[in-house]
């Protein structure tokens, strides 16, 4: 059993008596009396003990020791950067479920901007995307709970729940004078992260909505399926509004198009956070002309793929500037069944570019036409907007349906036109 640090009437002196043995275990044995930079600050520990006691004695409601200590640990991590967090048992399990690709919820990726809970991107084919939630929508209330005092993880927990139950989100959208309310029905968000189809004979479309443990295998399967219908003269890889996910899945997707060279490398303080990932010779589509679509909702693992293909000159990156999340989070289980999500490294593209708070610049900038002009591309939430961000260091469609879709999706139409032009140039060079 873990000893309690203090009862209701504990004094700072008593707390210090209990905390100091723990502190002293971490102190080096100095050869001289000069304090080391690694020494624990005893005065700060004493201040912590005093704050702890005053909350216990004077706060309007009684708070137990365990809650106070967990709140302290949450605060310690949340002040580091927007992506580090303390995870209780339920949160730890929830994170595991989301990386495996199945959980109950509404399907939105959220972050914190200017102290407000903000939509980064809705996930494809989920209640949130079908209802019309948009990037940069500010979530004011979840059901009857104001979000201004919720941590990011607490807000995520409130939005998740049993499939079939309803949830009400009060949203403030830029350019509108009054909030609007969305009533959504939770579903099992069983996100098959890969979708594919032929846009025209010889021209494929591959949509990756997020990076899960099985995404690499799904991409290879989709490429094989499209190639059964004939040789591919070009492929659109759509990473728009992809919030990222598992690092190894991003490596596997990039590897599907590269037969050699570096994909990504990471740098951190500890030796085990410094990794390098290179392409293997077994490649699903090494020669297919490629256009990669990105936008302000393309983040993290999506930026790894886009950056690798851009630096390796394997494809043309088209769209608008990406989100700019260039950090790697490690999930660390704790002995009590809980865990930490801790930022341990920054990642870099093969050319040595750090994406953190900068993003990927497309080779060809194409906004979304009518829709993006109306929304304003500058309204997208990016990593640099998040509080505490680290600084830089499917079924076949008919021709009519496809034609309508290409007219509605200006970026996709331009990507297809570019692939056709590349194909013509390639044939002339032969």
From TrEMBL:
PROSITE patterns listed in its UniProt record: PDZ
Annotated signal sequence range: 1-33
Keywords assigned: Hydrolase, Protease, Serine protease, Signal
Short name of one Pfam family: PDZ_6
The keyword ATP-binding appears for this protein: no
Gene3D superfamilies on file: 2-enoyl-CoA Hydratase, Chain A, domain 1, 2.30.42.10, 3.30.750.44
Keyword presence, Ribosomal protein: no
InterPro entries: ClpP/crotonase-like_dom_sf (IPR029045), CtpA/B_N (IPR055210), PDZ (IPR001478), PDZ_6 (IPR041489), PDZ_sf (IPR036034), Peptidase_S41A (IPR004447), Tail-specific_protease (IPR005151)
Domain PDZ: 92-160
Similarity annotation: Belongs to the peptidase S41A family.
The protein's name in its UniProt record: S41 family peptidase
């Amino acid at each position: 059993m873990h000893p309690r640090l203090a009862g209701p009437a504990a004094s700072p002196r008593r707390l210090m008596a209990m905390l100091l043995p723990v502190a002293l275990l971490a102190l080096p044995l100095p050869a001289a009396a000069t304090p080391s930079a690694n020494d624990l600050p005893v005065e700060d520990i004493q201040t912590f003990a005093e704050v702890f006691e005053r909350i216990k004695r004077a706060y309007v409601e009684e708070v137990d020791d365990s809650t106070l200590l967990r709140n302290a640990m949450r605060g310690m991590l949340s002040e580091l950067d927007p992506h580090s967090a303390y995870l209780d048992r339920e949160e730890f399990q929830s994170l595991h479920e989301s990386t495996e690709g199945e959980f109950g919820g509404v399907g939105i990726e959220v972050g914190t901007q200017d102290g407000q809970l903000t939509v980064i991107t809705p996930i494809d084919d989920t209640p949130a995307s079908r209802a019309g939630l948009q990037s940069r929508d500010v979530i004011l209330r979840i059901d009857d709970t104001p979000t201004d005092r919720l941590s990011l993880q607490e807000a995520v927990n409130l939005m998740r729940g049993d499939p079939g139950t309803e949830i009400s989100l009060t949203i403030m959208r830029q350019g509108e004078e009054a909030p609007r309310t969305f009533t959504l029905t939770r579903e099992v968000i069983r996100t098959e992260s890969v979708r594919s189809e032929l846009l025209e004979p010889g021209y494929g479309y591959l949509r990756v909505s997020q990076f899960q443990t099985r995404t690499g295998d799904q991409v290879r399967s989709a490429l094989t399926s499209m190639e059964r219908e004939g040789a591919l003269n070009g492929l659109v890889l759509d990473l728009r509004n992809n919030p990222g996910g598992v690092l190894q899945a991003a490596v596997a997707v990039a590897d599907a198009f590269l037969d050699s060279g570096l994909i990504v490398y990471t740098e951190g303080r500890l030796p085990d956070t410094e990794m390098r990932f290179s392409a293997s010779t077994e490649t699903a589509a090494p020669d297919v002309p490629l256009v990669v679509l990105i936008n302000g909702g393309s983040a993290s693992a999506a930026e790894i793929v886009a950056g690798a293909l851009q630096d390796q000159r394997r494809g043309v990156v088209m769209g608008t500037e990406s989100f700019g999340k260039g950090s790697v989070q490690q999930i660390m289980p704790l002995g009590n069944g809980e865990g930490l999500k801790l930022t341990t490294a920054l990642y870099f593209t093969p050319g040595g570019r750090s994406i953190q708070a900068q993003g990927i610049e497309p080779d060809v900038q194409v906004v979304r036409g009518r829709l993006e002009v109306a929304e304003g591309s500058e309204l997208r939430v990016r990593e640099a907007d998040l509080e505490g961000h680290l600084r830089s260091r499917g079924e076949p469609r008919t021709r009519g349906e496809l034609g309508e879709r290409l007219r509605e999706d200006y970026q996709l139409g331009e990507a297809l036109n570019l692939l056709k032009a590349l194909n013509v140039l390639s044939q002339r060079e032969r």
